[in-house]
Write a structure and sequence with these properties.
With about 150 residues, the chain is an alpha/beta fold. It has a single domain, classed as STAS domain (Transcription Regulator spoIIAA, 2-Layer Sandwich), CATH 3.30.750. It has a seven-stranded mixed beta sheet with strand order 1-2-3-4-5-6-7, sandwiched between helices. Helix 2 packs across helix 3. The radius of gyration is 14 Å and the shape is globular. It starts with 5 loop residues before the first strand and ends with a helix.
Amino acid sequence: MSDSVHREDLADGGVRLSTRRCSFTFHRVAPFALKIVIAGRDTGQFGTSVFNEIRFHLSGPKALELFVDASEAAGPTTEVSDAWTRFLTKEAPHLKRVTILTVSKFVHLTVSVAKLFSRTGDLIQIYSDPKLFAAALLRATEDAGRA
């Protein structure tokens, strides 16, 4: 049985991409900020659908700030990690910042390697403390309210 990707438009305006083992939920939390929540293990079953969803939000006049809550994510495969590295390298000019919450040491290591190989400098910020991640997200939404 194939692990087909289901796309669901949520009542609150968000979008969820899901398979039997993993989901990505997207919410536009401010005009130039997108929050992504990952739950489960991405083994490549999403193909380019996750990146296509993010690219849809990159089409604005200002750089986008990504907030990725990977606290419920299991370690991705090497192929998936490599795909994220390529995506971040290619889309870096359109991204203001990428803030990632990881609680698993393995996911933290995987994200750190992707950050290194993406050669994007300080574009990617990695947090292991949910309170610090929430504070960064709050700052971005408050800044958007003042703009």
